Each structure stands twice: as C-alpha cells, then as structure tokens.
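forwarding from the other thread:

> can someone predict this with zinc ion?

sure thing
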Amino acid sequence: MKLDPIYLLVTHPTGQYDVLVGAGLLPNLADLAQIRGPIALITDSNVGPLHADRLGGVACTVTIPAGEQHKTLATVQTVYDQLLVAGIDRQATIVALGGGVVGDVAGFVAATYMRGVAFVQCPTSLLAMVDASVGGKTGVDMPQGKNLVGAFKQPTAVLADVSTLQTLPPEEFAAGMAEVVKHGLISNPELFGRLETGDWRLTHQSPISSLQSLVATAIKVKRDVVQEDPFEQGRRATLNLGHTFGHAIEQVSGYRVRHGEGVAMGLVAAANLSARLEHCDPAMQGRIENALQAQGLPTRIPAEFEANAIYQAMFSDKKKAAGKLRFILLRDVGDVFVTAAATENEVLASVTAVQFT
Ligand SMILES: NC(=O)c1ccc[n+]([C@@H]2O[C@H](COP(=O)([O-])OP(=O)(O)OC[C@H]3O[C@@H](n4cnc5c(N)ncnc54)[C@H](O)[C@@H]3O)[C@@H](O)[C@H]2O)c1
Ligand SMILES: [Zn+2]
C-alpha cells in the first residue's frame, strides 16, 4: 500500500532534514533519503524478520535482540564489531529500522563509529515515529538509570512508513498513543480534544491515511519544540511532561512497565501535582485519564510499587537541576511549564493519589 508522503522540514544548529510520513516508503529508502554510499542497516529481532526485506540496497544488516534491556553499551559494542567485520567505513550511512530502542542504539553507534557516520531513521513503532526518531537524542541505559550515556546525532532523513504499524502489537501502539496524548497536552489543544472526545480513537489497524494524519500532527509538535531548543536548555524540557514520574515507575518495575505506559501513569500524576499546587483545575486529571483510557492505557500506578521507591528512583533520572527534581506541570491544555518547586510530601501525595488502593 502506497501513500504519498507528507514532508516535514526540521532545522537544527548544523543543518536540516526532512521527516517523510507516508506508506510504502521503505522500498525507495535510498532515493527518498538521498543516500549515496553503502547502507548499514540496524534492526531488532522482531522488526527485522517482518520488514527488513522491504529495503533495497543494504550492504550489511546488524540485528540486535529486541527489548529495552538490550539498550546497553554491550549491545553497542556488538554492533561496532559487526560493522567492522563487514568492512563498513565512513562513506556508509547507518539506517535504523525499528522502535525507539533501535533508533537510540543505532543513533549512538552512528554518532561514534569512525567518529561519526551519516544516519537515517526508519521508525516502525508509533512511539518512535512521533517521539524518539525526531530531535537528535540518542543513547543507552546504564544499571543506574535510563539514557544516562548518549550523544546528540541528527539524522539526515527520517522515513516514517506508517504501513509498518500494521504489525505492531496493540499494546505497543497504545504505548505510543501516550506520547501523542502528551504532545496534545504540551501544545496542541485540538489534537488533545480529538483524543479526549474519542474522535481520533485509532489502532494499528486503522486506515493508513488516518495513521498518516495522526503521526504527522504529533511529529509537528515535537518538531516545533526541538527546533526552538535543540540542546534542551529550555522549552524542550516540556517534552518530559509525565516523564519524571514515568521513568521512575518504569525503573521501579524493573522495566516491566513499558515506557509509554509509565508516561501514561506519569501524565496523570503530573496533572494531580499541578492541581495540588493550584496551577490547574482539578478536573484536568479526569480529562487526561479519559483520553488515556480511550487508548487502552493504564492511568493508575500498580499498588505493589512503593511511593517512596518511586520517589527515590526519580533522583537517578538525569533531568534534575542541581540535585532538585524538576517537574513539568500543567496550567491548561497547551500550557505547560517547568518547575523545581514541589516538596517531597507533595510529590509523594500525588504518587499515592494515583495509585491503585
Ligand atoms: N531519543 C529520543 O528522543 C527518545 C524519545 C522517546 C523515547 N525514546 C526511547 O525509545 C524507547 C521506546 O521506544 P519503543 O516504544 O519504540 O520501544 P522498542 O524499540 O522496544 O519497541 C517496542 C516493541 O515493538 C517492537 N516493534 C517495533 N516496531 C514494530 C513493528 N512495526 N512490528 C512489530 N513489532 C515492532 C519492538 O521489537 C519491541 O519489541 C525507549 O528506550 C525510550 O527511552 C527515545
Ligand atoms: Zn517518552
């Protein structure tokens, strides 16, 4: 199935690139992404068997095991080894085909292999399309916490082929919708409205034209934010709405809670904290819960995760300024801000308030 791409131009400090959102893009990868030299494809053990054969002209394919637990330096090392064995040099372009884990690992490899080679993202999960593949952040997890080692590496093109979403497990699609809800909350009230009213209740089996429209709308939010603040010195931090809670929940669960699910619970907790600190209407929490539930997402933190453990885990998140936790809070849909002014008791109260009893 083919669908003409929507082109979204992203500018960054050292250049610009296009994000193409369409269907049937992968067979024309080299042309569409204007790749000249050899292609070194990096994919994972789920996505490779499903989609790698759609890409033409690949010089070497490296398959990493699927899953967040493999977003490590050890995986990066095995990728370097395989690229070296295959004789991949600086003329090559590294292409990431997969979810956010593949994108983050492949991007880090592209930033460092031979001091840096060209990089193209072909995201295949909803989360990777609307969030991870745009903005140039790459990296790996450490035992001490997520994304603690990494680099900024801008792609030369991003091909979001929404037809790949048809093989995405429904719970992974839902996890991506958590970031779409987040994007609506950050700066697109119309997008949030469509999710809240159920007008945009999509699944991985929805018509590809609807998926294209959803993905392009959500990417625009991320694009506009990262363009304004490429190195995360200010506004970009707002993309972490729900993430201070979410990352901590993921970590306490031993990463059994998916990133998107942690974000969903985190958005509810962030709304609770915003209302607690009198920044927003208490009804905001219920509105966000409705939008998330409509996508089949969890809105309560499992009772087995101790509020104190979640609070402690927040301190291993690198997004804290001078030892203080930073939260992104809401005033309204489309109006969010960063603050370090929340006490331990207030944070614990919000975690407990959104926990199953
Ligand atoms: N760099 C960034 O700016 C950024 C932003 C957000 C998230 N992330 C990172 O992204 C990761 C989460 O991304 P994710 O949710 O895509 O996780 P993921 O890469 O683990 O993918 C989720 C699962 O779906 C499978 N999959 C992906 N596409 C598929 C398809 N089309 N068909 C069948 N299966 C498919 C994967 O193999 C995996 O099992 C986290 O590590 C997070 O830190 C990075
Ligand atoms: Zn996220």
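The CA atoms of residues 269 and 350 lie 6 Å apart. thats all i got for now
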